[in-house]
Design a protein that fits this description.
Layout lengths: L5 H8 L4 H9 L4 E5 L3 E6 L2 E8 L5 E5 L19 H4 L3 H18 L3 H11 L8 E8 L17 E7 L10 E8 L10 H12 L2 H20 L17 E8 L2 H20 L6 E6 L5
Parallel strand pairs: 7-8, 8-9
Antiparallel strand pairs: 1-2, 2-3, 3-4, 5-6, 6-7
Helix pairs in contact: 6-8
Amino acid sequence: MRTITSEHIEAYRNGCLKKLFDVIKEDPELSFEIRKDNEVMVYYRKGKILTIKYTNENNFQIKPLDKQYNKGVPLTDLFDTKKKADTLKNASCLRKYFKQAKELVYKHKIGVEFGFQQNIALGNRSFNNRFLVVDMEWQFSQSGINKTGRTVKTRIDLVIVDTQPNEFGTNDIYLTELKVGTGATEGKSGIVDHIKKTKIITNKEEVCNDLKSDVKSIIDIKSRLGLIEGEKKELKLSSKPKMMIILAYRGEKEQKLLDKQASIAIEEANKNGMCEPIIKKIDLRITL
């Protein structure tokens, strides 16, 4: 399950990680995500910019940006054992680290889709909204499953919960795929392929159960940390997730092509006996 302990949570609220957490919260370009094994990952444009793990020895292991982003050279030694305590007390130093790390990730991952995904998450962090983004880059963990019993691997862009109950009185969970423009709607990462993979994993009871447990846990932790705004709602989560596709366009030509892709997605879902995916279309052009 994606969860962290009460001691880990308290370190962000009032303990030695509070200054670090405050710096992360004040930066709209960073995403704070709960992971398994008492671990938190901070993302920028899908890049893991910082990993924080609470160990059994009541200590924190902090891993900075991977050196692959800096041509094999470590970005910093700020989080080494001898310097870590002082670093965590210095907000200016922490801001400087994130600034440098973001610049490296941006050069490595320039695509518009990365930033747009994070903006969607940023704009849907409230119980007052219809849709609540719970997690980014969710993937079913198969580490404890025999190789012969494993399912297809797929990573979900966004896990979204509908805060309004459906006709059965439960709150739907959506596995959401994001596509910006028409270049990413075909091929191995195309819409049809994604629908097929979604059907496979949602037909697995263990996947559905794991997802539901993760969603419950993440909502509870993010609420306690103030990462979800508004008055907390008691959600009765549906047992099987549905699918949402977000298609973002930057002109009439892209809009027409994406409309065609949406029709293909709905047809493919119907053909596979799936619930029809929700299609959300967003115009990226800004009118002044």
